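FORM 12-B: Structure-to-Sequence Request
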């Protein structure tokens, strides 16, 4: 989705804003622009397409100044174009504004403004906010902003530069993230943390309808009524380098290669390595509470939903607790059987996904005990959930989630073990044995990464494939869902996940010569059944690639290609088997020349419905 950066300080703001926009590019965008206070006027530069186009424009027509705002726009109202790109101004050019989100009542406000003589240049809802602010402005930016915010419906994060107060940036937001920091003689605001890391790692997150006033000397905060408030900064322990590509061609490959480290880091947060016991106080339930659960509801979107599906398998299998998993956009408007006091868990990498936030708020209204699995400290979900199980994946820049999915399934696996132990379903010894075995998974992952050329070679021969079906049973079916999403989102190859036994109830009609079927068969107790399903597609012309947990002789007659992960406990195998699936998606996308880190039409953090 869109990205915002604003800067005021003693540096030339243009390079700062351009670096910030580059750091946010991963969120997805189709135009970019800047507004800078230059000498005695507001100067704008905007360009459709990549940030490179804006850079070229700045080479032709340079600008400089000590305060400015920048934006990467992901089109919602009006096509991607120079005119629709942000920043926008009011007719009298009293201000320039950048906006993330959607103003739902913009047409009503636009009509009112037109009847008062405003002339609009773009099709955007953002220009409506610019004109509204210009209309309300009587020399006091804070007053105008307070009034405008009270009239806006929908979601917004706004950064504004007023011509009368050119060294100050005004910000406000609702249901759209904004994070601010004060560095050395400079203040900076952005819609996401990576844009701030070079300047400070002590940041403040804005809450709905709060107003921030950024000056070179510091940041003032006000509530929606204009009353001054204090905010305590949150320390972000991500380093600058972790949000950079280094020597990798793509962030996605860097992030896949970081998975063994992500594994160890997340594992060590929840497990005491000296005796392989769970740090039981890190989980949001004590023994009595864990025993009292009849059901756990998990709600999330996309990859995080797939993590929930696998989490369900772990928890039901190990802790003997029923788990319902629902997609957040369905949950938020659907009927619900949830009762007061029931446990409710959301999963979100960003902590800012609009549907997941809405689901969490609904569960709170229903009186549920809310919990979140989340990667971003200080994000909306981490602030609003009753308790948080953090993942320790660090910043994830590629649009396609990889290491964050791994961290989510690790946390869910450990939660399953903790629930199992507290509910009396597993002994301490059994849990310790499992944790010891689990600590060996990163090394098994590393082996796959060290031999990734095998996967690259397979991709080089298969990239022309038109349809890929991922099949599996039990935990492997949950894994297949994520493998299929990864492939389709970055390579644009049509791919679907099916419960292996379900294929013959319809979908097998699609299997033809040259279809690729990836059979995830890491669960030995289900392998005989998988063999039959593999044979059904093989005899209909599919190329069958099988992924197994250690050697499986039985696969030979039924599949053309076999990849083995190192043999491990069945329940742990999915944690490792996701790595070759992510690599397969990556290499197929690269072979096809796709923009791996920023696939078309997608955004990293989906902050609108
Ligand atoms: C796919 C992907 C998305 C996200 C989804 C939820 O690779 O990244 O499907 O998983 O948009 O995002 P979060 O986890 O930030 O709530």
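FORM 12-B RESPONSE
SEQUENCE OUT:
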């Amino acid at each position: 989705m869109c990205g915002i950066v604003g800067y005021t300080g003693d540096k030339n703001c243009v390079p700062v804003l351009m670096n910030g926009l580059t750091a946010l590019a991963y969120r997805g965008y189709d135009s970019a622009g800047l507004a800078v206070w230059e000498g005695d006027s507001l100067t704008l530069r905007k360009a459709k397409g990549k940030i490179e186009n804006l850079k070229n424009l700045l080479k032709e027509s340079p600008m400089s100044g000590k305060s400015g705002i920048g934006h990467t726009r992901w089109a919602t109202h009006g096509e991607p174009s120079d005119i629709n790109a942000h920043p926008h101004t009011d007719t009298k050019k009293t201000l320039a504004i950048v906006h993330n989100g959607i103003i739902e009542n913009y047409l009503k406000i636009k009509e009112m403004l037109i009847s008062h003589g405003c002339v609009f240049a773009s099709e955007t809802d953002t220009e409506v906010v610019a004109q509204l602010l210009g209309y309300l402005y009587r020399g006091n930016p804070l007053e105008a902003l307070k009034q405008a915010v009270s009239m806006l419906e929908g979601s917004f994060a706004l950064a504004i530069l007023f011509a009368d107060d050119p060294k100050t940036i005004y910000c406000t937001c609702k249901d759209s993230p904004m994070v601010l920091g004060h560095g050395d003689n400079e203040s900076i605001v952005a819609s996401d943390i990576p844009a701030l890391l070079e300047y400070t790692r002590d940041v403040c997150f804005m809450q709905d309808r709060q107003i921030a006033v950024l000056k070179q000397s510091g940041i003032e905060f006000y509530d929606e009524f204009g009353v001054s408030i204090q905010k305590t900064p949150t320390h972000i322990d991500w380093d600058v380098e972790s949000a950079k590509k280094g020597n990798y061609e793509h962030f996605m490959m860097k992030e896949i290669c970081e998975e063994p480290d992500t594994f160890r880091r997340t594992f060590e947060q929840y497990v005491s390595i000296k005796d392989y016991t769970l740090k039981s106080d890190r989980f949001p339930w004590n023994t009595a509470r864990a025993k009292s659960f009849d059901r756990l509801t998990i709600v999330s979107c996309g990859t995080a939903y797939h993590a929930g599906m696998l989490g369900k398998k772990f928890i039901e299998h190990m802790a003997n607790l029923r788990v319902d998993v629902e997609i957040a956009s369905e949950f938020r408007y659907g009927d619900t059987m949830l009762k007061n006091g029931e446990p409710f868990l959301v999963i979100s990498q960003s902590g800012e996904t609009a549907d997941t936030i809405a689901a969490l708020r609904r569960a709170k209204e229903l009186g549920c005990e809310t919990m979140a699995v989340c990667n971003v400290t200080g994000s909306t979900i981490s602030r609003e959930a009753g308790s948080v199980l953090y993942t320790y994946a660090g910043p994830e820049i590629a649009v396609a989630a990889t290491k964050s999915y791994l961290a989510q399934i690790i946390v869910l696996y450990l939660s399953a073990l903790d629930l199992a132990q507290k509910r009396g379903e597993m002994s301490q010894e059994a849990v310790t044995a499992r944790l010891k075995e689990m600590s060996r998974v990163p090394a098994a992952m590393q082996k796959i990464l060290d031999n990734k050329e095998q996967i690259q070679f397979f991709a080089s021969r298969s990239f022309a494939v038109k349809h890929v079906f991922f099949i599996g049973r039990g935990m492997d079916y949950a894994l297949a869902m994520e493998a299929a999403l990864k492939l389709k989102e970055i390579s644009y190859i049509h791919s679907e996940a099916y419960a292996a036994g379900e294929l013959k109830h319809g979908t097998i009609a699609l299997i033809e010569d040259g279809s690729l079927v990836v059979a995830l068969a890491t669960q030995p107790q289900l392998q005989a059944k998988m063999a039959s399903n593999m044979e059904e597609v093989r005899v209909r012309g599919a190329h069958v690639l099988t992924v197994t947990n250690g050697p499986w002789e039985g696969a030979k007659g039924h599949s053309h290609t076999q990849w083995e992960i190192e043999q491990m406990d069945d329940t742990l195998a999915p944690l490792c088997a996701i790595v070759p699936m992510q690599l397969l998606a990556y290499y197929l996308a690269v072979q096809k020349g796709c923009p791996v880190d920023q696939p078309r039409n997608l955004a990293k953090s989906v902050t609108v419905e």
